[in-house]
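User: Hi! Is it possible to get a structure for several chains at once, not just one? Here's what I have:
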Amino acid sequence: MTDHAHALETSTGLDSRKLAIWTFIGSECMFFATLISNYLVHKGKSLVGPFAHEVWKDPATGKVFEPIIEIPLVTVGTALLLFSSLFIVLALYGAQKGNRKMLIGWLAATILCGMFFVGMQVYEFTHFVHKGLTLSRNMFGASFFVLTGFHGTHVTIGVIWLFTMFILALRGKLTPNRSLNLEMAALYWHFVDVVWIVIFPVVYLIR
Amino acid sequence: MATTALDQPHAHAAHAEKTGLWSWLTTVDHKRIGILYGATAFFFFLLGGIEALIIRIQLARPDNNFISPETYNQLFTMHGTTMIFLAIMPLSSMLFNYLIPLMIGARDVAFPRLNAFSYWVFLLGGLFLNASFLFGAAPDTGWYGYANLTSRQFSAGPNVDFWNMGLQVLGVASLAAAVNFFVTIVNMRAPGMTMMRMPMFVWMSFITQILLLLAFPVIAVALILLMFDRFFGTHFFIPAGGGDPLLWQHFFWVFGHPEVYILILPAFGVVSEVLPVFSRKPLFGYAAMVFSGVFIAFLGFGVWSHHMFTTGMGPIADTFFSLSTMLIAIPTGVKIFNWMGTMWFGSLQFRTPMYFAVAFIAMFIIGGLSGVMHASPPADLQQNDTYFIVAHFHYVLFGGSIFALTAGAYYWWPKMFGRMLDERLGKVHFWLMLLGFNLTFFPMHFVGLNGMPRRTYTYPAELGFTALNQIETAGSLLLGLAFLVFLINVVRTSRGPRNALADPWNGATLEWAIPSPPPEWNFERVPVVDGRDPLWEEKRKNGGRLPEPVAGTGAGIHLPNPSYWPLVTAVGVTAVFIGILESPRWGPWGIIVAVALLLFGLYSWLFEKGYSEFRTPSHGGH
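Assistant: Yes, the chains can be modeled jointly so their relative placement is included. Here is the combined structure:
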């Protein structure tokens, strides 16, 4: 339906699918705005530990809970996620120029970064549960898992989407006149990164 | 000539009219989807109406026990939820679907299969919500489901879950449709159809899509949080665990207030189409109408806490939300004066659609005035949770939306079905509806100010509410009768000949330039537009009426193929939420199977033959 020739025939000159992705991203902004508001509203409202940044001693058992967040690990994940935004730009450039090697290489790098990020999050979640932080434990656990979990779900969907593009690229079907397909995935991927740029300081850095 | 993406010359044979159940299940034609939306929404409208009538019968006598308090709770909750999400919104969607492409001169919406998907998800969501009746577990916490009434502690049964998951499913449908119509309006306009030449209905629909896009994610998150509270042990809205029940109210109304504009703006659009045609004058103050609509939508996101004055937010918040709410009266007033300005010195023709449109203005003004009254916090403290509020929102939603949508039904019926509805029965319908409506809802102002609380299944005789309540019940029966007359009109008309003219009302917009009902491809040639009332302009140049358009064969016009994948994917989406609802019994397996079905449907959709550029097209037309 939509190769490049068609794009010129719309009222704005923009391809409708690209406009649809932008529209969807606009809507998603409100989705994450609400989730982040939810996190901020419940910040500091936990009745029991463990907490993100403070030590907590259970008055009943005397057990001491260390601060739970581990910034170095998440910083690596964050850095890789942000770099992947650059990688996908390079992959898209490869797709547009018909440079197959560039397309496949950088797309693979993007997917690996995304997978590392999701893996990091799975590790972090399991680690937190072992340390006693669950969804029902306190408000921090609830709002942390829901906020970062939904972001992680978005990253996972992005990885599946990019993997689909990767298969198409391998089969030689992501030709320059079809590069819009990758561009749409890329726009979504950038959005997921930008949301993390907000979540990372809000959850991990601000005390 | 610059044309839309669908105006590609292709070597196609003439299109035969498709019939049969399968053609409806796989249709991607925006007109058929519009009719599906309309039929389904009208069915749910009748269902919600029956729920309302049972409520009125219960309230016809003091200390009545026609139904139990539990049933009463379920009925008012389902009445509100049904009328908002399953009747008024999809009735507007019917008009979006049918009219937007015709009015902007397009052959279909931007994403025909996504459009079908929206409808199927809506249908399944509506059925899902109402399936709760079969389990005796209909939602019973009011349409805005306040925390902590919705917690496991106070609502142990699945009632709230049916409501929660049902609204999530419906939200998916609304969001998919909103993306589609937003892109359609921005990108699919015929040559010359600039934004400021679009018919007012398209403009109001456009603003509605933006509201949907920005408001629905908020309720989606709120419902997700509620789901976590009920299924996974979080305490977002439960104070015992450090949560905040008021947060629910904030989230709900950040969505809920734009939602009321989602319900009324399409109605504004309908009336802005009907009034000029029956006044034989262009719409008065076109630009002011556009910008007042935009202004209403913008302010709509800054007034949500006027639903919460009684929660004690303090003087600063109360003042802010009171002022922002009162400000909305300004753009709304602009609209009302412009509608009157449109009729002023017009040669008014009182056909049935015009009756409903004029009554809309009057009824909506009454609802608007009571709205400004409880924009004042001290007044609201008295009126909150009484029948005064019930009176107010029925004047804006029934007196407003339903009157306007009925005007639209009579106005566009000949275009959609090729048959004119009977004028005399239409006017009987109108007078019964106007009388019944006012008898039902006007006395509610008085019982409300006298302190009759809403959502209470009965009242003692000593309070003196009996006589007015009996008038209300009598009025509601008249309302039921009014829609019976409408049904009779529809049945009688459908037996008559399909002989409506292409342009029975001497219309100004593009849909009247093509045969009634339109061919599947809408326009033989994509029109070129050079003004705001393109058809009037053309008639003027032609020196009177245009010759009756002849239906062509559609040869050479590329139409999107029918597809069943939107239906499969919609089943997948609904199944995910059924899986969550049943997860206490089925564990994660229901969800896993549903997600697999969803992905299967989605990938089959994305790589479907004839659509995807990654597969060889089946018709060889690319």
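Residues 24 and 141 of chain A are 29 Å apart (CA to CA). Chain A has a mean pLDDT of 92.

User: Great, thank you!
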